[in-house]
Amino acid sequence: MTAEARPPSAVPPGGCPGWGEVDPVAEPALSAAGWVARFLADPARAEEVMAIYADLGFEVTARPLAPEHVGPLCAACVASACPVYAMIYTRRRAADLEEAP
After folding, report:
1. DSSP alpha helices (H): ranges in the chain?
2. What pLDDT, in 10s, does the model give residues 31-56?
3. 60 CB contacts (<8 Å, ≥6 apart)?
4. Residue 60, strand partner residues
5. What pLDDT is stored for residue 20 in this prediction?
6. What ranges do the domains of the chain cover?
7. In the prediction, which pLDDT does 67 show?
8. Is 89 exposed, middle or buried (0-12, 13-18, 19+ CB in 10 A)?
9. Helix or strand or coil: residue 79?
């Protein structure tokens, strides 16, 4: 996504009040299936990092960041300022798990 195509930011003046304070919470269903939340990324970075994780032998998926996946301090901003961001999840490939001792 180009800078021109990104939606205008709704981050309050002075920046995000929760930056560095609140970590996104992994989706419970994904965690139960063995997925690990790695980090939050913008669309351009998400594609690049997903390719790197896949090259390293991981299964990779991305999910949109949703207000229910962050604390109350960040929920309103996620709904308005971060709709294009994605949480990157990885897990070991099933074949790798079968070969592990």
Report:
1. 28-32, 43-55, 72-81, 94-99
2. 899 999 888 888 788 899 999 999 99
3. 50, 53, 54, 88, 89, 90
4. 90
5. 56
6. 26-99
7. 74
8. buried
9. helix
